[in-house]
Design a protein that fits this description.
The chain is built from ten helices and no strands. By secondary structure, it is an all-alpha fold. It has a single domain, classed as Hypothetical protein af1432.
Amino acid sequence: MTQDLYKKAEQFVIDSFTKLGKTSQIKHFERTVFWIKQLKADADEALLISAIAHDIERAFRKQDVKDKKHSHSYADPEFFRPHEERGAEIMANFLKKEGAEHKLIDRVKMLISKHEEGGNDDQNLLKDADSISFFENNVPTFLTKHVSEVGKEKVKEKFDWMFNRITSEKAKQIARQWYEEAIKKLE
């Protein structure tokens, strides 16, 4: 594995969010990588790059997705599909510029393009690691900022969706305590 390419992708993500003043989100990405490694010790480079960069679209978010955030459910494919597809394209373009092999680029695109809904084993793994990291790191923001923006009902829906979409029993066990605490704090 060329740690160099992973490090470049990680720096691209950090720089992209730092420019927006959204450095608080970086921990979520780093911990998604951590949880990938916990769930699959032999995770390949494409999986690790996808984990650090799965939400890169947020650093380049277009108004149409921003508008849908408030008018759709977080679990609505009409909301999350553009997020997945654009994120996959952003990373594919970055990796092309870095001279990555087509096979790696295609794998990263495939993984990021389904990180919210899952699909194959590795897409499910990325989704599960994303959910664990969400509960570990993002709940406070949802309990404050998102509750005031969209209301408790939509935030509860997000928490339930993020937990219920977890595929592996091991990942569900890891996330369960954080999920239950988040629900209690929301009420």
